Amino acid sequence: MPSEHETEVIRIDHLKKSFDSAEILKDINLTISANEVVSIIGSSGSGKSTLLRCINLLEEPSGGDIFYKGQSILAPGFDERRYRGKVGMVFQQFNLFNNLTVLENCVIAQMQVLHRSRQEAEAKSLKVLEQIGLKDYAKAHPQQISGGQKQRVAIARALSMDPEVMLFDEPTSALDPEMVDEVLSSMRLLADSGMTMAVVTHEMAFARDVSSRVCFMDQGRILENGTPETVFNHPQHERTREFLSRYLKSVQAK
Amino acid sequence: MKQLNPKRKKRSLAWLVCSALALLLLIWGSPLLSQTTAVAAEASSSQTVTGTSSGLTETEGILRVGMEVNYAPFNWSQTDDANGAVPVANSEGEYANGYDVQIAKKIADKLGLELEIVKTEWDGLPPAVMSGKIDAIIAGMSPTAERKEKMDFTDSYYTSDLVVVTLKSSPYAAATTLEALSGARITAQLNTFHYTVIDQIPGVVKETAMDTFPSMISAVLAGKIDGYVSEKPGAMAAVSSNPELVWTKFAEGAGFETSSEDTSIAVGLAKGSQLVEPINQILSQIPEEERQSLMQEMVDLNVGKETQSFWQEVGSLIQEYALMFLRGAGNTMLIAIVSTCLGFLLGLLVAVIRTIPIKRKKHKVGFVLHKLLCFLLSVYVEVFRGTPMMVQAMLIYYGSKLFFSIDMSSMSAAFLIVSINTGAYLAEVVRGGINSIDPGQTEAATALGMSHWGTMVRVVLPQAIKNILPAVGNEFVVNIKDTSVLNVISVTELYFISKSVAGSTYQIFQSYFITSVIYFVLTFTVTRILLLIERNMNGRTFVLQSTSVPQPVQVPKA
Question: Can you give the pTM of this predicted structure?
Fold first, then answer.
C-alpha cells in the first residue's frame, strides 16, 4: 500500500449534518489521499452512510466544509455534476437502471456527463465489464442477473466514468452470503489497482486486510482513525473494543 | 474543474423559465394562434373584425344563424340540399331544412347577406349570440322575459298553441281539457316555458325536464312518461313520424294559458343589435297565411315513410346518414387522439416540472420561482379536474369571445379543452408513475452526475410510462366518450350527429343504436390496440451468448 501523506483528494473539515432536530454527524474531520483505501466501520446509526452521502452531495451538509483537491464543493457556483462524475458511488441496493441493459447502464452517464460518443462509451464500458467478468451479460437487463452480478455491474457503471474516488455504501449488505465474495474480490482487485476508495462496510476481514486506513464511527463522530493494525489491535476507546470484540468473534468463527 | 463552475445556476434557471413559458404557451397558445389566424383571415378578405360599426353582422356579408338542426319541423338535418335545404357550415355534408331555415333564407335574402347555418346545441345558442359567435338565433325560440334580459328579439315569425304529445293507447289521448290530464306524468324541454306551463295541469305529476324532443319522444314511447308539452308544429311532426303517438286537441279556451310572448317565436339577437329593425321590416312582409302554409309544407316534408321493422329502419338510416355518422365518428376520434396525445405531453411536462429538486440554499431565486410554478400547476390540475369538461367548454369557448374577443373555431376549442382537461388528469397519473419508480435509481443517476432532465428522460420516465400505460389508455377511451359533451360548443362529433339524425327523423332508438355500436367499435378497437402495445413492451428475454459458459440460459422477465 502507498504511504499516507500523498496528494490529498478529499478533505472533510468540521462536517455537521442534522435531519430536523437529530444531529447525525457532529464534527467530522477526515482526509482521503490518493490511492488510499479508507474503511469506515461502526454500528448502524453511527452516521457512516450519511458521511459518505455528504461526500458526493446526495445529502447537503448542515455545517463545515468538504474540499475536493483543495476546492470547496459547497462553494456557490461549484459544478456539482462534473464533480459527481469524478466520484463514483456504489449503493447497498445496487440501484441499477431497470429499463436499460447492463451495457446501457454503463454507457448513459458517460454520454450525458462526460459527453463521450456512443462508440467511445460502449468501448469503455465493455472494457470495464470484461475486467469485472461480466462482458457476456452486456445485453442482459438487471432483472435477469443475480444480486452479486448486479453489484458488480454497479461497480462497472461507476468505473466507466473514470472516477478519481470510489465510494462504497455497504456494498455487500444486501447480498446473499454466497454472493458476497464475488463482490469483495472485485473490490479487492480495484484496491490493488490503486483506486482511491472510501468503503462503509460491516465486512471486518475486508477492512482489516484490504484497507490502508480504518475509521471507527460512533454517534456521529470518528473515534478511531488509523492503520488497520492500530485500530483492530490497539483501539484507543472502550467503545471501539466493545464493537470489535463482537465482530471479531464472528470473523474468527468463520 | 474551474472553467465549468459558474454556468450551472444560470442554466437551471433558464431551464425553469423556459419550461414555465412552454407551459403557458401550451395553455394559452392555441387560442392566441387561432385568434391571429382569424384576424389574418378576416384582414385578408378586407373585412372588419367587429362588424357592428360598418356592417350589420360579425363578418361582413354573412349572416350566421344558429339552430339545433334537430327540432323538426322548425329545423332538421338532411344529407342533401333537396327542398331548399341549406348546408350546415360547421358540419360537412349536413344540410339544414325546416321552417326556421326557410325564414332565415328569406331574411338573409332581403338583407342581401349570405346565409350560414351554424349547428349549435340549444343551451349553447344564447351564449353564442351574446358573444357574437353567431349573428342570430332562428331556432323556434320564444322571446320570454328571462331571455329578453340578455338578448333582443324581433317580432314573432310564427305563433302556435301548446299541446301535449302522448301515446295513442294512453288514457290521456282523448283529453280536451287540462283537467282531463290530471294525474298524468308530464315533462317538457329543459329551459323552455313549456316546462313552466305544466303547473297549469291540476294534479299533474311533473317529471324532470329533458334535454331534447327526441329523448322525450323515446320516453313517451318507452312509457316512462305519459306525455310532453310541445308546440303544435313539433307535435304534428312527431306524430307523423311515430304513428303510435297523438297530440291532444284542446277545446277552445281549455288548453294552456300562455302569453303571446311564449307561444310566439322570434329571432334572437345580441343586445343592441342593429338587425332588429331590418328583420322586423322583412317579417312584416310575410303574412299569416304564408306562415301557416309554409309550416304545413315543412311538416309534410318531414312526414315519416311507411312503417318498417326496427332493422329495416336502422338499415335505411345507415344508408341515408352513413357519411354523417362517419364524419362524426372521425371528428370524435380526431379529438380523442390529438387531445390524449397533447394532454399526455402536458401531463408529463407538469409532472416533471413538479419533481425538479432545487436546493433552497444554493438557488434561492430558482427555489422560489419553482415553488410558485408548482403552486400554479397544482391550481391548474385541481381546477380542471374539479370542474366538468362541459362547463369548461362553455366558459372557454364563449368566454374567450365575449371577454377577450378571441374567436376560436369550435374544433380548435375542442382540442384545447380536451387536451388541458386530459393534461390535468394525466399530470397526476404521471406523478404517481414517477413516484412508483424506486428513488434509488434517481439517486444513482444523480451520483453519476446526470441532470434531472437526463435522468427523467432516459431512466425514470420510460419505466413510469410503461407502468401508467393502462391508465393513459383508459383516459383515451374516456376521451372518446367524453367528447360527446362538446356539442355545447357546436363541435359536430358523433353524439351531436346522432342527436341530429334522431331529431330529424324521429327514429330515436334506431339512431342511438347505430351510435352506440360505433362508439363501442371505436373504444373496443382502441383498447385492443393498447393491449397489444403493452404486451409488446413486456416481452423481453435474454439469452446468454458466451464462449465461457456452454449452455445458454433463458431468463424471461418476471
Answer: 0.70
